[in-house]
Specification:
- The complex is a heterodimer.
- By secondary structure, chain A is α/β, with parallel strands linked by helices.
- Chain A has 14 helices and twelve strands.
- In chain A, strands 6-7-8-3-9-10-12-11 form an eight-stranded mixed β-sheet, with helices on both faces. A four-stranded antiparallel β-sheet of chain A has the order 2-1-4-5.
- In chain A, strand 11 and strand 12 form a beta hairpin.
- In chain A, helix 6 crosses helix 7, helix 7 (138-151) crosses helix 9 and helix 9 (170-183) packs parallel to helix 10.
- Chain A starts with a helix and ends in a 6-residue tail after the last helix.
- Chain B contains 18 helices and twelve strands.
- Chain B has helices spanning 10-18, 70-77, 100-107, 117-120, 127-137, 143-156, 173-185, 203-220, 231-237, 255-260, 265-272, 322-338, 345-352, 362-369, 377-391, 395-406, 409-412, 439-445; strands spanning 21-32, 44-55, 59-63, 85-90, 93-94, 110-113, 191-195, 223-228, 240-245, 248-254, 417-420, 425-428.
- Chain B starts with 9 loop residues before the first helix and ends with a helix.
- The chains are: A alpha/beta, B alpha/beta.
């Protein structure tokens, strides 16, 4: 998986903000080794929003936590590299991580109530970020905090900064969390299911807000969700994850109009609004497996309607889906589309041999 | 599998077509904290006077934002909450008056499937025991027959015999929800309240559960009340939909009518907020301001009037710049929130003792709201007057000034339920009245998106 083949011309000119290459994160338990993230690669550029979509257990959150250096024992990043502005993050000491977190890469979590401290006012928490990351204090910090709250669309900000998180509604709490994240002036914002706990009307407000912030601050955004509707709305580029691997990656329009991987197709077809009203929904048989052994086969094969014999033998690697379409990769033996099947399988086989790696404790 | 329900319900399948009513709800109210007391304050009006019917054999969807009272309504229909006023007639009996033995007997007819299978299943019971529990509670036939029935039920919901002795933690989310459904079906109910049955599940699993619910309905002639906040799910499996906001049903009608041509402004806004799984879909999104007001202190007139993008304006301001109008609404919202009666006892005491200054920084708020807007002088004069009142800590007068000038029928009169079209749909909105511009026309004139 060479980088030059991966990036299209338009994107390649600019140095990526974040470049994840063949990232592997595993959890070591007494019983087994769970390869939660197993060879994931993607880039995020400034001002670009990259979505990661997948079902629960597909490894989306572990990918985000690996980038933030938040993987706790028994988990460990066991391979690959995470480069932020050209600097390697894997192997950082805790001190180095702390310099990175917040000021460079900030994260917004799913549940705003558990990310805010209930015993401090919202203003206090924003000011804490300002003090730690920008050295602001006193009146200057208070004014900046009010301005940040206004930026994220909270009305009556001067009064609101003196209130506690429990006095905020769900949507306002998430806005406050985003304000805290912005107070650190990050260049990359990782949003881990930021709207899952919110109503659609509030979700619409938060998505609008993220759009604005992306343009205003030229932020790179990594957006994790299981909701295909949300991903269509916020991201410029989508990576679909399944059992620890990225199975398909393409610009958002291309992916939705022209899904190639059978898993992506199944996922899209099972959305109620893509089915005719009242008819039975299309489903994907079976369940997401736990990736507890090296992938020497396609992990989706047991559920795949298009599986053939080789799927059990050869591990597919991401390849361009065909010659004409730029910048659309799928990890499936059916592709590239424009070569014969035997040839395609051989291609996957040879690339796989080149990148094979062992995970040991 | 026909043996699962003792008698085939062919007569009921007929009922669905003829629109026979199974549940009739009339003027139902459920208030919390009504006892009041010295420091109790106003009650929470979770359900505030709803009237609707559920037809036999149909799926009625109940949608709305969190806190709009949809779960409370579902629970009141099950008699899990006590109704404050109004009646719920089930097959001709008013169930709000039932108690004791009669209530227990009636409860066999209605069952509920809860949102979170993790917390609704006892982790220390096996699946067999869980599904058998309702049968034991109602002393259904002999233990031997109960065991047989549990096996049948497991089969019906797509689990197998071998799952009988397993514990809930050994199952995935979708399977747990199947156990919940099996439990609900145990006593052959006619009516199921499904409270967010799929919102905790991934979309591929969700699709399977929805298909299962659909199959069960066909097979056993069940009637569903589906409570959900995911509108795409409701659109897919419901026959009729009721849209709730702040304890009121704003619009109710057939699913096609509601989703294809929403009449009520709230339904419009709610539908336009759904993210479509189609990038760059040409859609004018209405983003609602703020959050719903507190159900302790619902707005006067139409409950949606504080956030409504289609609110009727006084004639004098019909042609006012949309942004300025929006600014006025935001300012009034801020004042409303400052005068919030839901404050804690401590805050209210501080207010009474004059320690709380509601007039704080109001200039800044006004400056921020009307920043870069060209406010006409006739509008500005009222805003200035209101600001003066606020600075003297007199929120009430400030609100009155603005209400007097910018208020309209939406804030003064509660809208009636009016029929829209000929599909049996009713909606609560003043814009359906002949003297006002309809929602669609209004949207064309004022292009907001």
């Amino acid at each position: 998986m060479s980088d030059s083949a991966y990036a299209p011309e338009g994107r390649a000119e600019e140095e990526p903000l974040l470049s994840v290459d063949n990232l592997q994160t595993a959890f070591f338990t007494d019983k087994e080794t769970i390869r939660a993230v197993d060879g994931v690669s993607f880039d995020i550029r400034a001002g670009e929003s990259v979505g990661i979509v997948g079902e629960s257990g597909s490894g989306k959150s572990v990918t985000a936590r690996s980038i933030m250096g938040l993987i706790d024992s028994p988990g460990r990043v066991v391979g690959g590299s995470i480069q932020y502005k050209g600097q390697e993050l894997v192997g950082n000491s805790e001190k180095e991580w702390q310099r990175m977190r917040g000021g460079e890469i900030a994260m917004v979590f799913q549940d705003p109530l558990s990310s805010l401290n209930p015993v401090y006012t919202v203003g206090n928490q924003i000011k804490e970020s300002l003090r730690l990351h920008q050295g602001m204090r006193g009146r200057e910090a208070t004014e900046k905090a009010i301005q940040l709250l206004e930026d994220v669309g909270i009305p009556d900000a001067p009064r609101r900064i003196k209130e506690y998180p429990h006095q905020f509604s769900g949507g306002m709490r998430q806005r406050a969390v985003i304000a805290v994240a912005l107070a650190c002036d990050p260049d990359l914002l990782i949003c881990d299911e930021p709207t899952t706990a919110l109503d659609v009307t509030i979700q619409a407000q938060i998505l609008d807000l993220l759009h604005e912030l992306k343009d205003e601050h030229d932020l790179g955004i990594m957006f994790i969700t299981h909701d295909m509707g949300v991903i269509a709305e916020v991201s410029d580029r989508v990576n679909v994850m399944y059992a620890g691997e990225v199975v398909e990656s393409a610009p958002v329009e291309e992916l939705f109009n022209n899904p190639k991987h059978p898993y992506t197709q199944g996922l899209l077809e099972s959305i109620p609004s893509r089915n005719e009203r009242g008819s039975a929904l299309t489903t994907i048989e079976g369940e997401v497996p736990t990736p507890n052994e090296p992938a020497t086969y396609c992990r989706f094969a047991p559920r795949c309607p298009k599986a053939f014999d080789d799927c059990e033998q050869v591990h597919p690697v991401p390849v361009e889906v065909d010659d004409e379409t730029d910048d659309h990769e799928a990890a499936c033996l059916l592709y590239p589309d424009d070569v014969g099947q035997t040839e395609a399988v051989e291609l996957h086989q040879s690339r796989e041999d080149a990148t094979e790696q062992e995970v040991t404790e | 599998m026909t043996s699962l329900y003792q008698e085939r319900r062919e007569d009921e399948a007929m009922g669905a077509q003829s629109g026979e009513r199974l549940v009739e709800v009339d003027g139902l109210k459920t208030y919390y904290g009504e006892e009041g007391g010295l420091l109790g304050g106003k009650p929470v009006k979770a359900v505030d006077g709803v009237t609707f019917d559920v037809h036999r054999g149909e799926t009625l969807g109940l949608v709305g934002e969190s806190g709009c009272g949809k779960s409370t309504l579902g629970r009141t229909l099950m008699q899990l909450e006590t109704a404050t006023a109004g009646s719920v007639e089930y097959d001709g009996t008013d169930i709000t008056t039932l108690s004791g033995k009669k209530l227990k007997e009636w409860r066999q007819n209605v069952q509920m499937v809860f949102q979170d299978p993790d917390s609704s299943l006892n982790t220390r019971m096996t699946v067999g025991e869980l599904v058998m529990e309702p049968l034991n509670v109602h002393s259904w036939k002999t233990p031997q027959k109960r065991r047989e029935r549990v096996r049948e039920l497991l089969d019906v919901v797509g689990l197998s015999e071998e799952h009988y002795y397993r514990y809930p933690f050994q199952f995935s989310g979708g399977q747990k929800q199947r156990i919940g459904i099996a439990r609900a079906l145990a006593l052959e109910p006619d009516f199921l309240v499904l409270d967010e049955p799929v919102s905790a599940l991934d979309v591929s699993v969700q699709a399977k559960i929805l298909n299962l619910l659909d199959d069960l309905q066909d097979e056993f002639g069940l009637t569903y009340l589906l409570i959900a906040h995911d509108l795409s799910v409701v659109e897919h499996i419901c026959d009729r939909v009721a849209v709730m906001y702040l304890g009121n049903i704003m619009e109710i009608g057939p699913v096609d009518a509601i989703f294809d041509e929403p009449a009520n402004p709230y339904t419009n806004s709610l539908l336009s907020a759904i993210p479509e799984p189609k990038p760059n879909a040409e859609k004018s999104r209405i983003t609602l301001r703020g959050t719903p007001p507190s159900p302790r202190d619902p707005p006067s007139g139409c409950v949606f009037s504080t956030r409504c993008p289609y609110k009727i304006r006084p004639d004098a301001y019909e042609n006012l710049d949309d942004d300025v109008w929006e600014g006025i609404e935001v300012f009034r919202e801020v004042l409303r929130e400052r005068g919030d009666v839901t404050k804690s006892v401590r805050d209210r005491l501080r207010g009474l003792l004059g320690m709380e200054t509601t007039g704080m920084d109001v200039e800044e708020v006004v400056a921020d709201t009307f920043d870069q807007l060209d406010v006409p002088s006739d509008v500005q004069q009222y805003i200035d007057e209101a600001v003066e009142h606020v600075e003297r800590d007199d929120l009430v007068s400030a609100q009155e000034v603005l209400h007097e000038e910018f208020g309209s029928v939406c804030e003064n009169e509660e809208p009636e339920q009016l029929a829209v079209g000929d599909t049996g749909r009713v909606s609560r909105c003043h814009r359906h009245r002949e003297e006002y511009m309809g929602t669609q026309t209004y949207q064309d004139v004022h292009d907001f998106s």
